[in-house]
Specification:
The protein has 11 helices and 10 strands. The protein is an alpha/beta fold. The structure holds guanine.
């Protein structure tokens, strides 16, 4: 079975749109997401456009701020601080990657934790690993939603995650662990990787190499989640990290690229923006 992230995200966005339509009456306004795009990398432009379109579908106000790639770090941090102080802004996202002269770590830690819709702020990351309430990073959150929607049982299963990035590999491993899977984090230097991945009931691949995972690496009946977004070196088309054609017949469920994890990431960004808005509008009593 192919898990369509496109269909699932469309359903979830429709539910969010219904929820958001009640906000003007309840709270006097709708959530407001500000996306900052530095430079004009085509992939980043396309992601940012996708975020603006999804906001429109859900009924969230979206402001995209574009800055040239030679903006100084101080100027960018100044812009973020202004948005932190702006009460009409609920979520702030700075599209990554950034030009080399700008420290991504400084940018991420400058965004207010309460407006960090990506879930990248060190305080959000710490809260995740300490099992405290936090904003979950969008791609890992979307992956868990897809597995659940496809009826994949996670509890007690063996999960293997290939990739150890802060954005996907590490947090998705933590979320799978929290769902009571037994998790192995592997990477490009793992010795005899096929012997590790063949044990996986759930295989998540986030390594960024076209067709890195071949059919011999996948157990029959595994659930395969492909987080890769690559250009196929032969056809130039978008492709994942998994040899889809060879593995689809073996897998119980598999995500396509495009149309799998990508739309779910944006869907969870919408959810996180609503969460940040509601946290502000209905503060928890302490
Ligand atoms: N670049 C690629 N994916 C992401 C993401 O999820 N958030 C941000 N801010 N930048 C990205």
């Amino acid at each position: 079975m192919i898990i369509s992230g496109k269909e699932l995200s469309a359903r979830l966005k429709a539910e969010m749109a219904a929820q958001v339509s009640s906000f003007p009456e309840k709270y006097g306004r709708v959530p407001h997401l500000v996306v900052i795009l530095v430079g004009d990398d085509p992939a980043s432009v396309s992601y940012v456009t996708g975020k603006a379109k999804a906001s429109q579908v859900v009924g969230i106000e979206n402001t995209t701020i574009r800055r040239p790639s030679d903006i100084s770090e101080e100027e960018l941090l100044g812009l973020i601080r202004e948005l932190n102080a702006d009460d009409t802004v609920d979520g702030i996202l700075v599209q990554l990657p950034l030009p080399e002269h700008i420290s991504e770590a400084r940018v991420i830690e400058t965004i207010s934790k309460d407006k960090d819709v990506d879930g990248f702020h060190p305080l959000n990351v710490a809260a995740l690993w300490q099992k405290q309430p936090c904003t979950l990073p969008c791609t890992p959150k979307g992956i868990i939603k897809m597995l659940k929607a496809a009826g994949v049982k996670i509890k007690g299963k063996r999960a293997v995650v290939i990739g150890r990035s802060n954005i996907v590999g590490l947090p998705v491993a933590k979320l799978l662990l929290d769902e009571n899977a037994t998790v192995t984090i592997a990477h490009s230097r793992t010795a005899d990787l096929p012997s590790v991945t063949r044990e996986a009931d759930i295989l998540v691949v986030a390594i960024g190499r076209p067709r890195f995972v071949t059919a011999d690496m996948v157990k029959d009946g595994a659930a395969v989640i492909d987080v890769g977004v690559n250009r196929d070196p032969e056809t130039g088309k978008l492709c994942g990290d998994v040899d889809f054609a060879a593995i689809e017949p073996k897998a119980s469920v598999i995500t396509p690229v495009p149309g799998g994890v990508g739309p779910m990431t944006i869907c969870c960004l919408m959810e996180n923006t609503i969460e940040c808005f509601l946290n502000k509008m209905t503060p928890k009593k302490v």
